[in-house]
Amino acid sequence: MTKSIFPAAFAAPMLAASLFAAAPAHADDKDMRIIVTGEGEAAISPDMAILTIAVVREAETARAALDANNEAMTSVIDAMKGDGVEARDLQTGGLSINPRYVYPNDKNDEKTPRIVGYEVGNTLTVRIRDLEKVGAILDRSVTLGVNQGGGLSFTNDDPSATITEARKRAVKDALDKAKTLAEAAGVELGNIVEISEQMQQRPPMPYAGKAIRMQASADAVPVEAGENTYQVQVNVTFELDR
Fold this sequence. Notes:
242 residues; 4-stranded antiparallel β-sheet; 24% helix
């Protein structure tokens, strides 16, 4: 069995079936085959949010910018831990220190580019396992100094059961298609000789009546979790019996 995983944004549905009924007179029955693509999907509510935020600070010196950034990010991290986010779910994604320049132009007397300050950025990736806290955590982070980022996605810690269900539906779909094609061609299905799989995850969709609103207070950021849909496609090759 071969297996490959493609992001949902780049995956395209594969609806194809081909029937190889014509074979040389001397070929064996096993040379007559049918290849069918089956599709199946299953949905599940997410149980974890992944939030990417950043603190950016500017100052005349790199030291001052870094100190200001450290102070703000420490406050954000301490607040998240106080809200129940575990240390294992906090990960620094990147730290940057960049000079800021003023360049010569017709509005100044600069002869060459000159450093006028420094910008320090610190990115934090947070896994939030209590979805009811997402809006409040995001709101509080901004209050404490987060001023860049805001990337938010919803996922599942263990989607294996949902993916298994999608696989079963995909195989059933392939079997149904194969039976229909074989019957139309006047042949009988034989053994399965090969199965391959492709899997994709569709981004969360806020289904009516199923969306989870995470808003701890009137001031918290309103966030909708929706559902994650896992899609599986299987290519199944059957032998044909005369």
